[in-house]
Write a structure and sequence with these properties.
Layout lengths: L1 H11 L20 H26 L14 H8 L7 E3 L5 H6 L4 H8 L32 H16 L5 E6 L6 H12 L4 E7 L8 H4 L16 E5 L3 H16 L5 E6 L17 H11 L1 H11 L4 H24 L15
Parallel strand pairs: 1-2, 2-3, 3-5, 4-5
Length: 347
Amino acid sequence: MAAQKKNAASEKGQDKQEKGNGSKNPSPPEFNRDQELQALRDMLLIRRFEEKAGQLYGMGAIGGFCHLYIGQEAIVVGMQMALKQGDQVITGYRDHGHMLACGMEAKGVMAELTGRHGGYSKGKGGSMHMFSKEKHFYGGHGIVGAQVSLGTGLAFANRYRGNDNVSLAYFGDGASNQGQVYESFNMAELWKLPVIYVIENNRYAMGTSVTRSSAQTDFSKRGISFNIPGEQVDGMDVRAVKAAADKAVAWCRAGKGPYILEMQTYRYRGHSMSDPAKYRTREEVEKVRHDQDPIEQVRNRLLAAKMTEQDLKQIDAEVREIVNAAADFAQHDPEPAAAELWTDVYR
């Protein structure tokens, strides 16, 4: 009977995740006003972009797969605040937020979602497959876990060239059980490669609670057998993410090898637009939104620092204008010419 109750709790996602090996950060350092404003703008851009993408998908303007990042914005924004020019980012298929955080234009990302010529992959990649060499973003990848070995390869290139650039390889709790992840860990530690493995643990992978799919639910420990240090981070607090990122980046730049950051986060929407997310309760989602929303945390701190509601609404209005312009462009830009079928093909 007790086992049945435990399984039921796991299925609803209401059981508490196992805490780490004392590696959880204490209260994060405070942000100054400029940092808070930057974090707010960057996270709002991702949130409003994803909301608009969801609308366009519902209208049929976006086809194929579409995985939204709503709820997880603090991770990419906080990590990006710790990077310098030349550092690289690679991730899986929940990738729009990473692109925007890297500085890719909302118009180009949205146009790719709608399959238009002005998209970052000329309308041929869609939601999961776009890149920007200029912004050092090496793609969203549709194969689960594939980006981990590729991100390790980017770190190898940095080591080979003798620069001090760091590679960030993002993946989720579901991808963490892939074999190629552990092959990458082994190689990275053997060669002391400058790669940070950012595990975005949103608890449910494609729809199964981590407590039902993973024997070890503290993902910061996944590198122990390879001597890779790791820590759990509050992925809903952009300050905690930035602090952990600073530490991991310094470790990698010092030539000490790879580092693992488990970001404990939560996605508000289903795995993809086709997922009704019936494996968790509405109450659970609303509680996280109310208690831990990464954007509301920043807004509340700014309000406490005497910034007015009107000022914050103005920032939101500016962001919405950018997103609306991107959506308009993405719906009116021409589709790629038929001749594009024959470009960028390797034989």
